[in-house]
Amino acid sequence: MSITPATFLGALALELRPGAHAERDALETAAAGQLAGQVAHDLHQLVPAVADFDLALLAAHYDPVELLRPGWPLHAAIAALVERAPGLSPRPSSPDAQREAPMAASRILAFGARDGVLPAAVPAPESDYAQGALRLVPFLLRGAADAGQRMAEVASALEETLFDRGMVGAATALYAQEAFAAPLEHARYASIHDLAVLMAMQYEHAGLTALWPLIETALLAPGAESWLDAAPEPLARYAHGEVRIALLDADGWRAGGFAPAALGADAGKLERAFAQFEARQRQFAAILGAHAIAVRFDHCPPASDPRATLRDA
User: Which end of the chain has the smaller Cβ count within 10 Å, N or C?
Assistant: First the structure.
């Protein structure tokens, strides 16, 4: 199932205490149901209109790069599980029934592990990213296909509310801490857009500001085009679902204006700077790969126009 306009993508964000890690990556089915029910209660307290929509939660925690990937694959996997879930209880049709049990107006679905194994259709948390201090438990809100306008209103309210006061309820935070065996510093709710902003800030602090527009385009406007053309950074172009990086030799690097002018003609400094440039290319490729964005290196001969190569190859 694809993610429709009547879907809101979010996460329970668990910030671990410094030096701590979670002992359990995923919850078994019963514990998953308990956590989902508490998340649904918290969200209803923040924005009561969420009661108009189903809530589905995947009771496993992931690194932000695993959620922030083109097509939102973790949330898409949850949506597919929702589509196949049997025996969903009907929504109460009576306004009185909805007032008496507001969260009964929506269906709460929890997907957990069975004997430690998540459903086959769900990507398991990747060990390469398991040591981060911020862990995300993905969830979504989903309405009928014709509920796009109503979801837009609820999503707008959630975006505003979660950003300002999206702290997790004390009971929910305590349960998540115990269930995942994860010592928590903070716990809050975030939309997928909040997470993108947070990731952009982290990359800025890490000196990777120049790379973020390529990632942002791949996530939020995958049909668009974006360039990284800011020497002495590597030259790269996002289009058609992949990032193409100009692969230059030392002569092409200098001829293309990527060598800092302050280096002059000092051969030793130029050699070291070119090695740093190549390392920067590899770093960018690795980060893009972590976000599951395809990368291709296009060889650009010294006499060629590398921008034309990336545009035409």
Answer: C
